Amino acid sequence: RNEEARKNALANELRSPIICVLGHVDTGKTKILDHIRKSNVQTGEAGGITQQIGATFVPIQTVKDRTECLNQKGKLELNVPGLLIIDTPGHESFSNLRSRGSSLCDLSILVIDLMHGLEPQTIESIKLLKKGKTPFVVALNKIDRLYGWVAHDNLNFTATMKKQTENVKIEFKDRCNQILGQLAEQGLNACLYHENKDIRKTVSVVPTSAHTGEGIPDLMMLVVQLTQRMMAERLAFVDILQCTVLEVKVLLGLGTTIDVILSQGKLREGDQIVVSGLDGPITSQLQHDPTYAVILAFDVKVDKDAQDMCKEMGVTLFTADIIYHLFDNFTAHLAAIKAKKKEENAHLAWFPCHFVIKPEFVINKRDPIIVGVDILEGRLTVGVPVCVPSKDGLILGTVQSIEINNKELHEAKVGQSVAIKIANFGSEAPKMYGRQFDSTDAIYTRLTRKTIEVLKEHFRDEMTKQDWRLIVRMKTLFNIM
Ligand code: GDP
Known about the structure:
Elements: H1 2-10, E1 18-23, H2 29-43, E2 50-52, E3 55-59, H3 60-66, E4 82-86, H4 92-99, E5 107-113, H5 120-131, E6 136-141, H6 157-162, H7 166-185, E7 190-192, E8 203-208, H8 216-230, H9 232-235, E9 242-251, E10 255-264, E11 274-277, E12 280-283, E13 294-298, H10 304-313, E14 316-320, H11 323-345, E15 353-364, E16 369-381, E17 385-388, E18 394-404, E19 407-409, E20 411-413, E21 417-423, E22 443-445, H12 449-458, H13 465-477
Parallel strand pairs: 1-4, 1-5, 5-6, 6-8, 7-8, 13-14
Antiparallel strand pairs: 2-3, 3-4, 9-10, 11-12, 15-16, 15-22, 16-20, 16-21, 17-18, 17-22, 18-19, 18-21
The protein binds guanosine-5'-diphosphate.
């Protein structure tokens, strides 16, 4: 990966840097984002800004146009394809990500109100940025609120500053120096961006107004410059997928959807994806599962074409004039599918069990083994293979029948003493009581990863808390990670 990244960095094959905006409430974070968005919507360029879910993509052409006043000779090469700005500064899941020190963001913009200086959430944000080692710039916003400010819409900062009166310049300098002092108290070296001689050690400060757009070209230019100079390798395109989930939503007609930030690689339609859920990995599978391939048509006529199309596509169609009937039909459909899946997987549903042989009840030592047993944990069912985990998983055979007082049982429960017949398992050589195993061995039903999957997926309602606890313990015995 490093080699590929280095090569692509040299060839300037870069991805868009991911930028997030943070700072105290009311400093103008949303307004700055709005300004970047709106100005481009107004100019109506082709291939303009695309507002995506939770993020805004600003194409490089837009950055070029907006920064023309600064880069008239085109001296600075702009190599990134654009900027991906996270829209939702206060987004809860995003602040979660930030506090976990996520490396999702390549660069942050910390917004400070020039008239208020550092506020509690500014200091909080600085702590998060330091903790996550995220590079950032400061937007010193609301310069238009300086007394006597004359606005020059969308002009770059140094040019508009030159046009201000002496008094405005003095007030700006005072307030700016005061804030630089406050930043120093937080352990940060900072200075105005055009005076910054060492961008790696000193934080650049860009004065802006989100109302008039002054300084916004400087901010955009600086962000591109910094990302290109400081993180070319990090931004180099490599074909390894990296996605971060921002939000999980249930959308009408679509089901469960996730909003993700795709920060590296390519995601193609039809790709199967795996995300980590609270109960383990979740794998996308969605359109061939017949369970939810249904249409509930309530009090509407369904024409013949639609009915035929449903048949063709394997979609089950329910029609009813009474909503409760529709509900009952659908519930019955779900129950039938569940029962069918259970039936299909019944031969693999090996419920967990731990038992020992009663030495005084050994009726037949081999082929088939017939012994009396005490069920110590779980339950024993017919058809299940049993083995001795402490002897390298030695398989004794499959439980062929269970009896109590000459009566056949399908299942024996914890606490019961029963007689069982164990038949040979597959092509395994028959085992003999007293030779490979005896009454001192702890015998368990066989556990595999597949067994656990089947029990989880189709037999959860039949499993007790004790059963799951036994499975957890057996996983260690059977070396299942
Ligand atoms: P956020 O909470 O940081 O997202 O702040 P907002 O973007 O919602 O802005 C808070 C208030 O400050 C709003 O009333 C904005 O109109 C105002 N505001 C934001 N930026 C500027 C600015 O550059 N100049 C002036 N005068 N007001 C601003």
